[in-house]
Amino acid sequence: MHEFAKNVYSVSAKDGAGRELKIDRSDPYSWRVSGHDGTVTFAYTLYGDRGDGTYSQIDQTHAHLNMPATLIWAKGYDERPIRVTFRPADPKWKIATQLAPVAGSATTFWAPHLQYLLDSPTELSDHHLREWTITSGGRTQTIRLAVHSADSPETIDAYAEKAKKVVAEQIRIFGTAPEFDFGTYTFIADYVPQISGDGMEHRNSTIISQPRTLEAGKFAQLGTLSHEFIHAWNVERLRPAELEPFDFTQADPSPSLWFAEGFTQYYGPLAILRAKEATLDATLVGLAATLDHIVNNPGRRYGSPQEMSLRAPFVDAATSIDPVNERIFTSYYPYGAVIALALDLTLRQRFGNDLDAYMRHLWKRHGEAQRNFAPVKPYTTADLEAGLAELTRDPGFAKRFFDAHIRSSDLPDFAPLLAQAGLVLRPADANKAWIGAANITGGGDDPVRLGEIPVPGSPLYAAGLDRGDTIVAVDGKPIASLADWRAALSAMKPGQPMAIAYATRTGPGSATITPVADPKLTIVTLEKAGGSPSAAQLAFRRAWLGTD
Questions:
Q1: What would the pLDDT profile of 531-544 be if each residue is shown by its tens digit?
Q2: Would you say 230 and 167 are in contact if contact means Cβ atoms under 8 Å apart?
Q3: Other C-beta atoms within 10 Å of 437: how many?
Q4: 0.90 exceeded by the pTM?
Q5: Mean predicted confidence (pLDDT) in 408-423
Q6: Which of 4, 36, 65, 130 has the most CB atoms in a 10 Å sphere around its CB?
Q7: CA-CA distance, 462 to 437, in Å (whole number)?
């Protein structure tokens, strides 16, 4: 839930004759207007100064409008077509939106119903626009890229070329492009200093943002663009049953975000690599970071991917005042990406198949045939399992996979799976000591304190330390500054015990801790590990990653 109504003020209502109408309120989210003649003109001022995938930002440079954060809507008229007219504050401003244009007007658009209206972010600014066409499934459709930034036209051109390649690769993955409802798909991209980094998928568009220009970011923004376009299939049409229809008055939880977001997270960088817009080494660095984050994440012991998906209303941009235990949650984005990696490599190993085929099968099963702005057959977890059973013709395998990795939190041994592609999974630095917490605060006039809960099972956790405890001394040496703490860490050796003195809310304490080897993982090619991949391993790598 996002409290959009808090930014609405100076509210008034008039009837068809221009007479002021009474407004009653019984809750902070709605306004009740009575005594009208069948026509109500409802006016309000909106304060908006957060540009991202959820909120709205209105300033001298643009109007970045996410509709649930922008528009009041009338209950009971959900299925009626709706017209929207924008009046740009600057004559240079253009309008980028997935709303359908009304013939003969450059500023009036329409939506078939409320769901589509609220799903239609809109950018008014002096943005760059690039367009190209795609042909798939017997249809020719238009892709639009609207970029609001200080980048040069040449830089925008280069970005558009990269985007074209990624879009083409993703169409290849799914077999056909979605049928966009009005024949167009629009990337709405804000790369301006006052924006917040984000991306949010919509049925025929996405709104993405980053506070750096393309030039400053060296086109790193392509990562978010790739992720969000995959959602044109996965989430917007291949859709969890719990999100259909969407209820804009409450949180809409789903146990399937590990698939909806996690599998999308897996394909984002993979599509960029296959499109030859990233190097293998850079992609492996990102893949290793994702794998390490999940394999060594203590949150897995507290919940499966399904459980973590259901926690989205608590963690995904939701805020609360009271502290939370950050060790009990594992984000469904990387969690699902690691599940996708496991399934992709297992399908290739055991069935001569791959995750691309699974996604195409689900697309045909649940997404491809839909029309009229809605999915034909939203999926459940049981449907995802059934789709895997159909693809592999092995219901037993599908059940075991879902029992172990979706309904429970087990992970496979990734080393032999990656070895098929001549990739080596190994510790990043086995000689580095690790004690279970790295976030330290204070120094100067303030005590040096633990800024995070130690990882359960780690040396610090076993010693009984907690977030907020003061570190007094390590190995007999006082810790009075962050530099002292860094020096103590660098002197630690795996397997060598040392004393630590600390203070908790109940007073001083001491313990002996034994650092362990840093569990952080890395992935390198067999060539960089000093070996020589076989022809079979190189062929596997090419088939999977599109490169040697």
A1: 999 999 999 999 99
A2: no
A3: 21
A4: yes
A5: 98
A6: 65
A7: 12
